[in-house]
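Troubleshooting log. The previous structure file for this entry was overwritten by mistake, so regenerating from the original sequence record. Sequence copied from the archived sheet and checked twice against the printout by T.R.
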Amino acid sequence: MKRSECIKALYEELEDCLVVTIMGACAQELYDLGHRENFFYLQHAMGLASSIGLGLALNRPHDRVVVLDGDGSVLMNLGTLTTLARYRPANLIHIIFDNGSLLSTGGFASHTTSGITDLAAIARGAGVPNVALTTTAYEFMEASADAFERNELSVIVAKVEATGPDHFGMDLKLPENAFRFERYIKEKN
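Regenerated output below.
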């Protein structure tokens, strides 16, 4: 299963959500589908997409918040899973694309390679009420549909191939993206 195909399958569902992505391939693949003002690409802050998503979810309880994350980023901030479980924002869906690689920072193997570390088990152990581990496109779409239907914190760990986009580069820089994302939120009130 490819991350880009998962993101493409979710794209229409993300139209009215506040979406935070981690840096690199995940951000690029979403951007390439077509930027929307409700997308915030957290460039240069590996590990913090889930923390920003949590803050948004707690402060915007009537908005669905979706975090598109990676295994390397979650491993850099493992405490985020315990914090998510403690606060349990009902409007947050945290999707972790686990490719077993630090793809965006050189392609080095992450701790999830060869089953060494199981992020779904860690999320369950942290107390996240809804955790799904998916390995096929069908499982991913089923878990995503379930997460979008329920009103409870959900984490989806999607095992994906360690492949990325054939290019990197957005004409939307972080400061401009941040200003536009903030404006979108203010105008949504």
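The domain at 3-188 is CATH 3.40.50.970 (Rossmann fold). Archived copy saved in two places this time.
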